[in-house]
Amino acid sequence: MADSSADSSPRNSPAHRAAQPQAGGVRFNRVGIIIRPQADAAMARVFSKLIDLLEAHQIAWALEASCDSPVREKAVQRFDRHQPDCDLIVVLGGDGTLLNAARSLSQWDIPIMGVNLGRLGFLVDVRPIDLKQYFEAMLRGEFIEERRFLLEGTLMRGETRLMHAVALNDITFKMRDPARMVEFDMFINGVLLNQQRSDGVVVCTPTGSTAYALSAGGPLIAPDLDAIGIVSICPHTLSYRPIVVSSRHVIEITPKPQSRGGGVMSFDGQINHPLEVGDTLVIRRHDHEIRLIHPCHYDYYALLRTKLCWAEQNG
User: Which residues constitute the domain of residue 216?
Assistant: First the structure.
C-alpha cells in the first residue's frame, strides 16, 4: 500500500486557501490567453475586446501556442503553457477549458481569470459583458484571489508506475464495458474502506463536488475545506453512501478478478487511461494549487443559488 503519512504543512490549512480581497494597484507585464478549441464569432468578439483592453493599458499579451487565433488580422505572440512567462492567465471558454489549463499551469503559481463563454460556469465566472469593468477593477487591485487544490493519480502495476496525471475536479474509475458493473477494493491510508460492486466511483476535490460527483448524488463541499469526496456511481448495495475524508489521506482503488475485465480511469473527464485487474490506482492531494481570480462581489454560496436555481419561486 502507498505511504499514508500526513502532510501537515501550512498549505493544508483552510486559511491558506481562503479568498481574500486585494488592495492597491496591480501591474501585469504580460498576460497569457487560453481559448477553447473551435472558436466562433462570439469568441472572436470577446478575444478582440480583451486584447483591446490589454493594449489600452500597455500590457503585453500572448496566445497559448496550441490555440488558433480567432482574429486573423492581428499579429499574435505565443507562449508555451509548460514554460509560461506570464503574470496572469485569462481563460476564454467554459469550465472545461479552465480545467484543461489548470492541470498544466498549477506548478507555475500564476493567477488564472476565467471569462465564461460556456454554459454553467462554476469556475469561469466573469461574463463577457462585464469583462472591461472587472478587468480594470482588477488592475486597481479590486479582486478576490482563491487557491484550490488538485488531486494526482498514479497507476501502479506492482512496483512499476505506468501513468501519472492530475485533476482539478475529479478522478473517476469505471468499467470499460458500460453494460457491466465493476468490482473493486478501496483503501484509505492502507486500511480497507469497502469492497463494492457499482458502475464506478468518483473521487473529487471541493471544486469538483459541483460536477460529476454532484450528479452521482455526492455532497457539495465548500471550497475552503481540506477534504476529498468519494462517491459511488450507482452502487449495487444501496447502503454505500458518499464519504468525505481529509485531503491528507491516500486513496487506493484495486479492481477485483471477478470484475471480468479492467476499467478506465479518467482525470477531469479529459484524460483517460485503462486500468487492468491487478493494477492499483493511488490518489492523493497534489503538491501544487491553482490561483483563481474572482470579481470583488464573488460569493460561492450566491454562485450555488444562481447556478443550481435554489432561489426560484414556485407559482
Answer: 150-287
Same domain, 193 and 267: yes
pLDDT by residue (tens digit) across 224-238?
999 999 999 999 988
CB 254, CB 280: distance < 8 Å:
yes
Written as nine digits, the cell of 110 is 500564476
User: Which residues are known catalytic residues?
Assistant: 95
CB 173 within 8 A of CB 265: yes
* In the chain, % of residues over pLDDT 90: 73
CATH number of residue 38's parent domain: 3.40.50.10330
User: pTM of the predicted model, to two decimals?
Assistant: 0.89
- Best CA proximity match to 276, nearest among 288, 290, 259: 259
Both 130 and 240 in one domain: the answer is: no
Strand extents, DSSP E, the chain: 20-21, 30-35, 60-64, 78-79, 88-93, 111-116, 144-157, 160-167, 170-175, 182-188, 191-198, 200-204, 227-233, 243-246, 251-255, 263-267, 271-275, 280-294
Spatial neighbors of 174 by CB under 8 A, at least 6 apart, are 182, 199, 200, 233, 263, 264, 266
Instruction: Dump pLDDT digits (tens) for 115-162.
Output: 999 887 899 999 999 999 999 999 999 999 999 999 999 999 999 999
DSSP one-letter code for 277: T
How far apart CA 131 and CA 92 sit, in angstroms, is: 11
Burial 115-143 (b: 16+ CB within 10 A, else e): bbbbeebbbbbbebeebeebbeebbeebb
- Distance, in Å, from the CA atom of 252 to the CA atom of 284, rounded to the nearest integer, reads 9
More confident residue, 257 or 207: 207
